[in-house]
Design goal:
single chain; alpha+beta; TIM Barrel; Rossmann fold; 7 domains; six-stranded antiparallel beta sheet; xylan 1,4-beta-xylosidase activity; signal; Glyco_hydro_3_C_sf
């Protein structure tokens, strides 16, 4: 996998200075000549691969910095490395709709103002991959346009907290869970019920989104936008979704529920995945090594980044319905929900559920936590100490994250990239708005079109010039329903507006009557038609009844209760059709099928669409009046009613597991209202000359099915030619589907009498089924019928082909997953060994049909194209290092790290190569005689450079870069002719701060290199200039008086805790607070003056002694954690970790508890009814010592919008 380059150009110089590459002091002692340190760090050097650069960047971070990067929202900037604050969470399912880095839009408010296309469910009913590709090309243009610097402070943007930032380009789309049950609340986000169809249409989505060619090949080394396919996997029930398990056979898991993800990974090279809330066969998806690592990464070859769904890491340890009360094999849980503890059954070792859950999510491959609740330093240090995590696992997660960010161009010069020239002009451009209408036109499905009122022609299309009166009824016609994950487009055209515009344009004297008739999706009484409306209906030239679903019917977190028409639409249809006007159209816009058997005979025509975008009214009129010949086809089975559906939580597909019913067109045993693939046209089409290019083929072969499609109608039109594979095959112990979609093509618009010749090629290996016990794909021998037709139930003709033989396995992917990214010179890696951190963590007793003897936890794995893994102990493997001066690798697969730099370690099996990047370094340390310094007074710093490698380092040199205005002068040798293997060299330095140095934390950047080194070594030390008192660092107003609610600003957005609400909980301004055995003095609040510290690494004098130090505070924009330091009067130090949950969380996390929860908070407008909390945390002190100074964690520089901040209101020792 190629990884991309990071860090914004504007930060390069500062970052290089911080690394000691440009700002080093001149040594006072002469020495032997040395090789110059590389002028640019590897992570900024575009000559390296993106993955190599990401590995170098991650290796330079401290553990604290690494942990803070594991959150999706507002992962903090690392200024010394030139890393911007980053938010991974942006949304753009069918138009940009969520921008969590829209920090300064000026006066622009409301939802995201971007072009809103039809939902994926709706748009994919066009069956037009090119159209979807054009749509998402436009959406990604707008995503890039939102990074236009001129939008900062003037309009919505995705730049983050600084105009100088590169911006955010990871978007969480598309949703590709299958609509296997139409009651699922999120059907409108997905692409229908068939995995092949979803893979094809979502593949076009990803290709357009990421700036690739329509076939998935790259146009550039850069990603235009990073698409993230979700929700992996089996997230098809909303009710209690965070606490339920989706239980499924191993065969269905491969053949159906992950097949569309496989297609996106292999063909569209999707950049990201999102793991889901549900468990899969008892193991939480977010921590499931089988699905997330063995299947997605090692079988399907996924190499991008993986985020959790928001809060999903918490499902590992929380109790139902918030979670699964899970613990991995070998551990038990005490089932105490948010405060759960895991216990190792063999050793008695304990770890908090939050720490363990985060650890196992990282181990499985979920690289980043949305929104970061469990990703705290305290949790991960605890997990490392308990032996369930390593820093190497964290590094691997960050390698994936920073690789994808580099691929978007974040760390490269903007003038060298193809997409940075896109401007704000792309946002809601006229061309994009026209395209949204075109997609909506093609997404409409004509379900019925009978003759009406004695006319010897179908009711539609109607001639608008001949319409004197049109009556439209139903509230659906008077509003624009955009569907889930929609923005706030400037253009919104409802059905009434669309119809009115076209009728009035053709006949200005026409009368348009609209009556919502008291209808809605939630109404319980009958529809109400006025007498005038009734009269108008009787005399109308056309009547349109608008019904359907909306966000009140279903959506994220809410499944549909059933297929019955919601609200009082049935009453509306009955009343309107009872008035006897035969020229009636039923217009349905919904998120799936609704029960209409009782109404079909009452209307002449039925048109259907999913939520059809900003121009849905125009599109409806286009079809009603013939401007658009409908060509949409259903991507789902239109069931008659609930009796045709199994329980929604039943993930079985075949009849035997679903009470004889079967799911989807592949297995359904009943007769639906309309079959999968159904759709009518104003034209008619005939299929002829259907033939296969061979009568017999082996399992490795390809079959070409050719046929002609002719427009036999009287108007131009297009149709969708569909190809299904069916077989007269019986397999013992296996229920096979009746047929499967294996190809389709939308014709061009054919003039009457015109024929288009089509050939669809089918790879026989794609007809394979997974055999869980054999742990591979199998093509069954027998006779296959390749059926051609307009839908799954109608066969215009077929060709028979006999398939024989077995699949010949060929190596498809080789994956290399070592236990770490960063290694010291002299370390070894056995590529033939197992990686302990990816050991299978599923319950063997809960994996139906799976062969538990097949795992994929070796460092190197090779998988065949039939899904079978090779035994590499019996297979020739060729190993290679891209740079033997950094790492060598023996013929037996033993890597030895020898020198500084990055190396790509590859393994080749049968001509297929996989690789992993490692970063090798020697140990460099910097210390000082005193961490706390006085301005103008020199201190002694010491650098120690250790050769951990197997050979001597020639001509080594060490440098120390001090902050601007400081001096760092060596007082001993800083250059060395050689550093023998295993030896260390030490240099002392006199470091002097200016007399006018202000309080703060100042970095000493040590660097070292040697002749021939491909990269330098770096280490950072801190010198602290303390503030005069604690009062000097109390800079934020976090609490306001209810009489002046706008006087506080705890979060950069004008919100604050309420003084009165806190007092009601016993927390009184200026009063004493006893908590956790300590007595605190609460600050004086409500005056508009600062009352809390925003922890940003400040050092303050704090003289006290006791056994415990305590902190009262809170956090905003996510859980905040970091490492602080206590300096004792004897000069010794003690590091501690402080962590507070977000003030909206209202529940403790590891290492803290709740002090008080209030019912509301304040903002400039007054009270906001939302519970918020403040928390307490304690740290044990070293016995018998007196505190001299307290250095707070460096969480963030201030309280700002979308920036994590840790607030401290009181500190006490006792």
């Amino acid at each position: 996998m190629r990884l991309l380059q990071s860090t914004a150009t504007h930060a390069v110089t500062a970052a290089m200075c911080a690394l000691g590459l440009l700002c080093t002091a001149t040594p006072a002692h002469a020495g032997p000549p040395v090789a110059a340190s590389p002028s640019v760090p590897i992570y900024l050097d575009t000559g390296y691969s993106f993955q190599e650069r990401a590995a170098d960047l991650v290796s330079r971070m401290s553990l604290d910095e690494k942990v803070q990067q594991l959150r999706t929202n507002s992962a903090p900037a690392i200024p010394r490395l030139g890393v911007q604050q980053y938010t991974y969470w942006s949304e753009g399912q069918h138009g940009i709709n969520t921008l969590f880095a829209n920090n300064n839009p000026g006066s622009v408010t409301g939802g995201v103002h971007a072009t809103s296309f039809p939902t994926n469910f709706a748009a994919s009913m066009s069956w037009d991959k090119d159209l979807i590709y054009r749509e998402t090309t436009a959406v990604s243009d707008e995503a890039r346009g939102l990074l236009d610097k001129s939008l900062w402070g003037t309009g919505q943007n995705n730049l983050g907290p600084s105009k100088d930032d590169y911006g955010m380009l990871t978007y969480w789309a598309p949703t590709v869970n299958l609509d296997r049950d139409p009651r699922w609340g999120r059907t409108d986000e997905a692409f229908g019920e068939d995995p092949y169809f979803a893979g094809q249409m979502a593949g076009a989505f990803v290709n357009g989104y990421q700036g690739q060619n329509p076939d998935g090949t790259a146009q550039s080394k850069y990603l235009k936008v990073a698409a993230t396919a979700k929700h992996y996997a089996l997230n098809d029930v909303e009710q209690d979704r965070t606490g339920i398990s989706s239980n499924v056979s191993d065969d269905d898991l491969y053949d159906y529920y992950t097949a569309q993800f496989k297609s996106l990974i292999e063909k569209a090279h999707v950049a990201g995945l999102m793991t889901s809330y549900n468990a899969i066969n008892g193991t939480p998806s977010v921590a499931n090594t089988y699905t997330t690592n063995q299947i997605a990464q090692r079988t399907y070859g996924f190499g991008g980044y993986i985020t959790s769904d928001c809060g999903a890491v918490g499902t590992t340890y929380q109790s139902f319905p918030a979670g699964h009360d899970w613990a991995p094999p070998g551990w038990t849980t005490d089932r105490k929900g948010g405060s759960a503890t895991w216990t190792n059954t063999a050793t008695g070792q304990q770890v908090s559920g939050a720490a363990g859950g985060q650890a196992y999510a990282l181990r499985a491959g979920t690289n980043v936590n949305c929104t970061g609740a469990e990703a705290t330093t305290l949790n991960l240090e605890q997990a490392i100490k308990a032996g369930v995590l390593s820093e190497g696992v964290i590094d691997n997660a960050l390698l994936h994250l920073f690789t994808v960010r580099m691929r978007t161009g974040e760390f490269d010069p903007v003038d060298k990239q193809p997409y940075t020239k896109i401007t704000k002009a792309a946002i809601e451009s006229p061309a994009h708005q026209d395209l949204a209408r075109a997609v909506a036109d093609n997404a409409l499905v004509l379900l019925q079109n009978h003759e009406a009122g004695g006319d010897r022609k179908p009711l539609l299309p109607a001639d608008p010039a001949a319409l004197g009166k049109v009556v439209i009824v139903g509230d659906q016609a008077g509003k624009v329903t955009l569907g889930g994950y929609s923005g706030d487009p400037t253009k919104k055209v409802d059905a009434v507006q669309g119809v009115t515009a076209q009728v009035k344009a053709a006949n200005p004297d026409a009368q348009i009557v609209y009556d919502a008739a008291g209808t809605s999706t939630t109404a319980s009484g009958d529809a109400v038609l006025s007498d005038q409306t009734r009269a108008d209906i009787r005399s109308a030239d056309l009547v349109v009844i608008a019904v359907g679903t909306d966000e009140a019917t279903a959506g994220e977190g809410k499944d549909r209760s059933g297929l019955a028409l919601p609200g009082n639409y049935g009453s509306l249809i009955d009343q309107v059709t009872g008035l006897g006007n035969p020229k009636t159209v039923l217009d349905i816009q919904s998120d799936g099928p609704v029960a209409i058997e009782a109404y079909r005979a009452k209307v002449a025509a039925i048109v259907f669409a999913g939520y059809n975008g900003e121009s849905q009214g125009d599109a409806l009129a286009d079809v009603l009046f013939g401007r658009q010949n409908p060509g949409g086809h259903l991507n789902f089975t239109w069931y008659k009613d609930d009796s045709q559906l199994p329980d929604i939580s039943d993930y079985d597909l075949a009849p035997s597991g679903t009470g004889g019913l079967g799911r989807t067109y592949q297995y359904f045993t009943g007769t639906p209202t309309y079959p999968f693939g159904y759709g009518l046209s104003y034209s008619a089409f005939a299929y002829s000359h259907i033939r296969a290019d061979r009568h017999s083929v082996d399992a490795d072969g390809t079959v070409g099915i050719s046929f002609d499609v002719t427009n036999t109608g009287s108007v131009p039109g297009a149709t969708v030619a569909q190809l299904y594979a069916a077989g007269d095959i019986t397999v013992k112990g296996r229920e096979l589907p009746d047929k499967r979609l294996v190809g389709f093509q939308k014709t061009r618009v054919l003039r009457p009498g015109t024929t288009q010749h089509i050939t669809l090629r089918v790879r026989v290996p794609d007809l394979a089924f997974h055999d869980g016990q054999k742990a591979r794909q199998v093509v069954y021998d027998g006779r296959y019928r390749f059926e051609v037709g307009p839908d799954s139930a109608t066969t215009a003709g077929s060709a028979q082909v006999t398939v024989h033989g077995s699949l010949t396995p060929h190596v498809r992917y080789v994956t290399v997953q070592p236990e770490s990214v960063a290694y010291e010179a002299g370390d070894t890696i056995d590529l033939t060994a197992r990686n302990q951190w990816i050991k299978d963590d599923t319950d063997p007793a809960a994996q139906p049909g799976r062969n538990m003897g097949v795992t994929a936890d070796h460092v190197v794995q090779a998988v065949n194209d039939d899904g079978s893994f090779l035994d590499l102990s019996r297979t020739a493997v060729r190993y290679r290092s891209s740079d033997p001066s950094v790492a060598t690798v023996s013929r037996a697969g033993l890597v030895t790290t020898v020198g500084n730099g990055v190396a790509t370690i590859s393994a080749t099996v049968h001509g297929v190569t996989g690789s992993a990047v490692i970063r090798v370094h020697h140990t460099l340390a910097v210390s000082s005689s005193a961490r706390i310094v006085t301005p103008g007074v020199a201190v002694t710093a010491t650098t120690t450079y250790t050769n951990t490698g197997p050979t001597a380092l020639p001509h080594a040199s060490v440098a120390l870069a001090a902050p601007d205005g400081w001096t760092a002068v060596p007082t001993s040798l800083a250059t060395f002719s050689t550093v023998p293997a295993g030896a260390s060299v030490t240099t002392t330095w006199t470091v002097t701060p200016p007399a006018d140095t202000k309080p703060g934390s100042y970095s000493l950047a040590a660097s070292a290199t040697y002749q021939g080194a491909k990269a330098g070594d770096a280490a950072a030390g801190q010198l602290l200039v303390p503030y005069a008192s604690v009062d000097d660092v109390i800079t934020n107003v976090g609490i306001s008086d209810d009489a002046d609610p706008g006087s506080g600003d705890i979060d950069g957005g004008g919100q604050s805790l309420s003084q009165q609400a806190l007092a009601a909980q016993g927390i009184v301004s200026g009063g004493k607070v006893v908590h956790d055995g300590l007595t605190f003095t609460w600050p004086t609040t409500g005056t508009g003056r600062p009352d809390n510290i925003v922890a940003s690494g400040q050092t303050v004098p704090f003289t006290a002694e006791g056994s415990t130090i305590g902190f009262l505070g809170t956090a905003d924009y996510g859980n905040a954690s970091g490492t602080g330091t206590i300096t004792y009067t004897d000069g010794t130090t003690q590091d501690f970790t402080l962590s507070f949950p977000d003030w909206w969380a209202n529940s403790p996390s590891t290492g803290n508890d709740v002090l008080a929860t209030t019912d509301y908070f304040n903002n400039g407008g007054g009270k906001v009814q939302q519970k918020v909390s403040v928390y307490g945390a304690t740290v044990l002190l070293q016995a018998g010592k007196t505190i001299a100074y307290l250095t707070l964690p460096d969480v963030g520089p201030n309280a700002a919008t979308s920036q994590v901040a840790l607030h401290i209101f009181a500190i006490a020792v006792g």
